[in-house]
Amino acid sequence: MDHWTIYLSGEIHTDWRAQIESQALAAGLPVSFTAPVTNHEYSDDCGVAILGSEPNKFWHDHKGAQMNAIRTRTLIENADLVIVRFGDKYKQWNAAFDAGYASALGTPMIIMHEPENAHALKEVDAAALAVARTVDEIVAILRYVIAGELKLTKAAAE
């Protein structure tokens, strides 16, 4: 494969996506990245902003979720690899759904989360081909699977 498209799913409160993108590009990897809309207000309100208001919050959220699903499903279906980041501050139900969707499609996944979330995410982790803790580990995995280069991470070297 000459070029890889990688979908970055998960928490939106840190800059993990930008870190992976910049490090992968600095490593010269032939990759492009896609992601959901990460502006929380846009994601929540896109349905009513475009299609009209809803007096019931359920239908407000439903319109937005359906509209976001157009993007999410399309980008996951077209991805060569899906990376799903679970953060500590909020429960990312959408990220768990994305992981399940990618798994059902047979799309390879790397899951990223802190060790204290291992039990809660055990089923998601079991569906993944790798579980990482850091951006450095993610980029080392990308470097290996895409370019065949093995560069040890700090954690692996210890």
Keywords, separated by commas or semicolons:
Rossmann fold; 51% helix; 5-stranded parallel β-sheet; alpha/beta; 7 helices; 158 residues; globular; YtoQ family protein; 5 strands
CATH superfamily: Response regulator
Described by its quaternary structure, the protein is single chain
Q: Determine and state the CATH class.
A: Alpha Beta
CATH topology: Rossmann fold
The count of DSSP E runs of length 2 or more, i.e. the number of strands, is 5
Shape: globular
Low-confidence stretches: none
| Distance separating the two termini | 33 Å
What level of helicity do the residues show?
A: 40-55%
CATH architecture: 3-Layer(aba) Sandwich
Strand order of the largest sheet: 2-1-3-4-5
Pfam families: Nuc_deoxyri_tr3
Protein name: YtoQ family protein
InterPro entries: YtoQ_family_protein
Walk me through what this model shows.
The mean pLDDT is 94. The chain has helices at residues 16-26, 40-51, 57-77, 93-105, 122-127, 135-147, 154-157; strands at residues 4-10, 31-34, 81-85, 109-112, 130-132. By secondary structure, the chain is of the alpha/beta class. The protein is globular. 51% of the residues lie in helices and 15% in strands. The chain has 7 helices and 5 strands, in the order E-H-E-H-H-E-H-E-H-E-H-H.
Please describe the topology of this protein.
Elements: E1 4-10, H1 16-26, E2 31-34, H2 40-51, H3 57-77, E3 81-85, H4 93-105, E4 109-112, H5 122-127, E5 130-132, H6 135-147, H7 154-157
Parallel strand pairs: 1-2, 1-3, 3-4, 4-5
Helix pairs in contact: 1-6, 2-3, 3-4
